Amino acid sequence: SAKANGRNGTHLFDPKAPQTDNEDRNLAIIVAQAVERDLLSLVYQPIIDVSTNEVHAVEALMRLRDIDGMTIAPSAFIPVAERTGAIVQLGRWAVRRACSEILARGLAPKVSVNVSAFQLREASFPLFVAGVLAEFGLEPSTLALEITEGFDIASDSTVIQAVVALRRAGVEVWLDDFGTGYAGLSWLQAVDFTLVKIDQRFLQACETEDGARFLQDILTLVNNRGLTVVLEGVETAAQLAFLKKFGVRLAQGYHLGRPCASDMLSAVKAPAKAARAR
Ligand code: C2E
Ligand code: MG
Ligand code: MG
Ligand code: MG
User: Fold this and answer.
1) Residue 270: is it exposed, middle or buried by C-beta count within 10 angstroms (0-12/13-18/19+)?
2) N or C: lower Cβ tally within 10 Å for the chain?
3) Residues 6+ apart with CB under 8 A from 44
4) What is the number of alpha carbons within 13 Å of residue 258 lying toward its C-beta?
5) Could you tell me the superkingdom of the organism this chain comes from (predicted)?
6) What's the complex ipTM?
7) What does each C-alpha distance from 25 to 20, 32, 77, 118, 166 come to in angstroms?
């Protein structure tokens, strides 16, 4: 089967394992029923200001429990949801849940929710987001939406208009996994992002001199455009020291905090406070 032992003793579908059409269909059925059958949850990973050790925001990451109670990784079910169109329903669920679970309870100053570019093709999405913010009486700037350059949205006027509407409503729009999508730099020019998350592969590549120079070049580009930067995938103390040396303030990764359920968020903040006291 395509199931493998994942982190934290959970079982994850291995997205690289060949899937039969049957498995794909089963997954599509689970995805279609996910909201109704309460199979979804969000875990949250802190984005840390490494100059103060404060939590700048938490990123909401979706988990799907299948009928047997196993956890399915987003890399397996998000592409299926995008193919079937269920992503629209899943994505709305995530925005509402993150707002109620984190912001309405004051568990973090800001929450970022991943949004598929497909969701932005839905003209009513910005109105939905504004409705959720109003429902919970939230300051719009406490919500950020992370978009990955999944397809060439820079030339999709519906998507661009959705981003404009969201920015007008005061919501932050972040570019996720910068440097990995095929539309690349045109996005950065076409869309009014507030922040750019630089994919973990660029930090990993810093072990070589050329890799380090390349990251420096990316940072220069992003900084010159007046954008805030988050470095993703900080796994070691050496990488943390490295990004500090580069003047990067915001970072995320297993070394700084693993994704966890919302009830554990005070535990996420605790080590940060301890580190500051030292
Ligand atoms: P992403 O938005 O770039 O999220 C970062 C991924 O890297 C997460 O995987 C996170 O658990 C993992 N990660 C965090 N720190 C480290 C680290 O130090 N090292 C390594 N190797 N990995 C780290 P996850 O939760 O499996 O999510 C994978 C992707 O699925 C996300 O990438 C995002 O693109 C997508 N996704 C997750 N939740 C949602 C959602 O609600 N909606 C949509 N549309 N996509 C989602
Ligand atoms: Mg993300
Ligand atoms: Mg992403
Ligand atoms: Mg990312």
Assistant:
1) exposed
2) C
3) 58, 59, 60, 61, 102, 108, 111, 259, 260, 261, 262, 265, 268
4) 5
5) Bacteria
6) 0.98
7) 9, 10, 11, 20, 34
Please report how the helices 157-168 and 125-135 are oriented relative to each other, as an axis angle in degrees rounded to 10.
Answer: 20
Q: Hey, which of 61, 146, 260 would you mutate to test ligand 1's pocket, going by the most ligand atoms within 8 Å of its Cβ?
A: 61
Residue type for position 16 = K
- Mean pLDDT in each 10-residue stretch from start to end of the chain (278 residues)? 39 52 85 96 98 97 91 95 95 98 96 94 94 98 90 77 95 92 74 92 93 95 94 96 95 97 73 41
**Which is the closest atom of ligand 1 to the Cα of 115?**
44
CA distance 183 to 59: 24
Residue nearest to atom 22 of ligand 1 (CA): 233
Residue with the smallest CA separation from ligand 1 atom 37 is 61
Strand partners, 143: 111
Give Cβ neighbours of residue 111 (< 8 Å, ≥ 6 apart): 44, 57, 58, 59, 60, 98, 99, 102, 103, 142, 143, 144
pLDDT of residue 7: 41
For ligand 1, atom 19, the nearest C-alpha belongs to 233
Measured between alpha carbons, how far is 53 from 276 in angstroms, rounded to an integer? 6
Cα–Cα distances (Å) from 128 to 123, 165, 257, in that order, read 10, 11, 31
Q: Which residue has the tokens 């988050």?
A: 230
Residues 226, 13: contact at Cβ < 8 Å?
Answer: no
pTM of the model: 0.89
